[in-house]
Amino acid sequence: MRLKESLLCFFITSICFSTALSQQSAETAISLNTIKLRLKVDQDGRPFYSVYYKGKTVIQPSRLGFIIDSSIRLDSNFQVMKTDSMTIDETWKPVWGEVSQIRNHYKQLAVYLQQKSAPNLSLALLFRVFEDGIAFRYEFSVQPKLKYFIVSNEETEFNLTGDHKAFWIPGDFDSNEYLYTTSKLSEVDAWKLPMLSFGNKAENIPDQNAVQTPLMMKTAEGLYINIHEAALVNYTSMQLHVNKAKHGLIASLVPDTYGNKAYLHAPAKTPWRTIIISDKATDILASKMILNLNEPSAIQNTSWIKPMKFVGVWWEMQTGISSWNYTDNPDIVTRDGKMIPNGRHGANTTNVKRYIDFAAKNGIKGVLVEGWNTGWESWFGNWYGQHFDFVTPYPDFDISEIEKYSKQRGVQMIMHNETSADAGTYYKQMDTAFKVMNKYGYNSVKTGYVGRIIPRGEHHDGQWMINHYVASAQKAADHKVMIDMHEPVRPTGLHRTWPNFLASEASRGNEWNAFSEGSPPEHEVILPFTRLMGGPMDYTPGIFKMKNYAKDAPQRQMHTTLAKQLALYITIYSPLQMVADLPENYEPHIDAFQFIKDVAVDWDDTKVIEAEPGDYITLARKEKGAGNWFIGAITDENSRVASVPLAFLDKEKKYIATIYADEDNADWKSNPEAYKIDKFVVDGKSVLKLKLANGGGAAVSIMPATGEQLKGVKAYK
Question: How do beta strands 215-218 and 248-253 pair?
Answer without folding.
Answer: unpaired
